[in-house]
Amino acid sequence: MLMATFNGAATLPNVLEGCRALVPPAGGWRLIVADNGSTDTTAQVIECYAGRLPLARVFAARRGKNVALNAALELALVAPGLPGDLFVFTDDDATPAPEWLLRLAEAANAQPEYAIFGGAIVPDWAATPPAWLERMVPLGLTFGITPPGQADGPVFPGLVWGANMALRRALFDGGMRFDETIGPSAGAYAMGSETQLTRRLADAGERAWFCGAARVAHHIRAHQLTVPWILERAYRFGRGQFRQACPGVFPELLGVPRWMLGRWLREAGGLLRARLLGQADAAFRHRWELACLRGYFHEAWRAPRPPRRVLITSYSGELGGMELRMAQEAQFLKADGCNPVLAIRPFPGSAAWARQLRARRVPVTHFAPPPVFEQWHWRRWNRWRAQWWGARALRRQRPDLVHVAFCWSAYGATALWLARRCALPAVISVHNTFPPGDVSAWHRPLLREAFGAVRGVYGATEAALQHFLALYRDYLPAGVRLAVIPNCVDTARFRPSPALRLATRQALGLPADALVLGAVARLSPQKRPDALVRLLHVLRPRFPDLYLVLAGSGPLELAVRQLVDERGLTGHVIFAGFRDDVETLLPAFDVHLLLSQREGFGIATIEAMACGVPAVATDIAGNADVLRGSPGGLLVPLDDEAAAAQAVASLLADPARRARMGEAGREDVLRRFSLQHVQAQVQAFYRGLV
Question: Which residue ranges does the record assign to the Glycosyl transferase family domain (predicted)?
Answer without folding.
Answer: 504-667
